[in-house]
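Hey,
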Amino acid sequence: MHQGKKVVVIMPAYNAALTLRKTYEEVMSHDCVDRVILVDDASTDATSEVASEFEKLKFFAHPENRGYGGNQKTCYRLALDEGADIIVMVHPDYQYTPRLIPTLVGMVGSGLYPCVLASRILGGGALKGGMPAWKYVANRGLTFVQNLLLGAKLSEYHTGYRAFSREVLESIPLEDNSDDFVFDGQMLAQVLWWGFTIGEVSCPTKYFPEASSINFGRSVTYGVGCLRTALAFRLAKWGLRPDPAFPELASGNRL
């Protein structure tokens, strides 16, 4: 618990058997964490077997691979069903350190930031942590354009380490989003559309063989999807092209 609020950590997993134990143990080292939920997206390794060894972990397995976005949808739905007030997403590949969980929880729990991102760009450690140069350049370029179109000033939109309040997850139409990687970009665009504030903290990152990563081709598809989402947001904001992902709000868009 954090100030009487239930904290649930979700872990969308795919072929994370080699790093899951270390991630889980570090997550559970924090007293503020009430529950950990892992969803295995039809892994081909021993992810399910490793997950079944942890008594305090709620485990769910997709019978077929649903994709990164589809995995998150299940994670968030299970967390809300669990009664979570604060939800933190941590990848079980140990690319992001779980040591920041109390910080993310505290920022959401304070009521100041209903959404918090752990940024690899803040602090300038992304390249030192092993981020490939082409990914770093793509990250910075995409973020620049997204900030222009979404009217925000974030250091990056592409981190997989995030925390949300229950209100955020209950407000935005997550189930209507893609089941692929672009889900992340769609979700943050919707957070901004609904007028929620996004905070950021600096997060070190590690790139190593066991850490999950998408290839160049899928990265291009992801980047194009992020740009399309941001453009759809801007056109809807200007009233030029309505989009079901960005509906007209009864109280008016607060951006």
